Request: fold
Amino acid sequence: MGLLTLPFDGLMAIFREVADRAEAELYDDGAVRDELVQLYQQLEAGSLTDAEFDAREMKLVERLEEIERHNRAKAGH
Amino acid sequence: MAIAGRYLYGLIRATEDRDFGPVGLPIVGAPTPVHTIRVGDIGAVVSNFPTKDRLLPLRRNLEPHNRVIRDIMNETTIIPMAFGQVARTEAEVVKALKGNLKTIDAELTRLDGKVEMTLRVLWDVPNIFEYLVAEDPVLALARDEMFGRSSRPTQAEMIDMGKMFEERLAFARKRDTRRLVQIFKPHAAEVKENDPKDEKMVAHLSFLVRRDQMQTFEETLFQAASSFPDAYVFDYNGPWAPFSFVEIDLRLDSAQA
Reply:
């Protein structure tokens, strides 16, 4: 039988909610999305402080913007 | 200086002005008051937001966006807005409401008492190519013919093989998605198929589910999961505000664009 995973709690729930509905708009790049998931997991597990999380999240989101700009340029928009 | 921009969380029915407290997107680290801008009995849930600020999808912004919508959703029906909608002025929000009152009213009725559930079904296998080959004698034969001889496969052969694999993948997804939709259709008001974003993703579905049907929906989920092969993982999330089922587009000339 297939395995059924339970919905996430806490921080991951927020992330999943966002990722779920806005995947295409906000986190279209799979690699960046995976890294963000890891960041959230580390924050939730307490292995990252809020400040560390914020700094690394900002870097990722900036990279995401960079990718989007690149894609837009490539698409000729 | 007064802040003219308005960040938009969603649309609700409101016969009087509402104040949801200081829970909005932060400005310079401080949370802002969330309130309504009303036209008739429709209210736009907003907080002040400077239009010149960059609005990035960071946790510190996403979290309040989601929390506001979630809290209101527990109390009344809300048409949730996607993250990042900012109107230049309050007047712009009023104009958007006035121009869409009937549509908003219909949408609120359509979403009333319903929540969104999402389901991702994945192939939990180390190598999706090997998995499909094991399931498909024709594909297995083609692979064996290509790699089983002494000469290396040509580029054309590799491309053909790739095409065949893609076809099988698409076929399996279509077959399983159809099966899932059939299973869940009786228990959901609406079903939406999203494109799988990952090679190992079988299906990505969103369901609009009536609150009073949640229990049967979840029971169906468990039954469905147990009726699929071992390699399938069912990853479900929710209940959330029905983001995927919002059809209205307020056409705010987003100040961020």
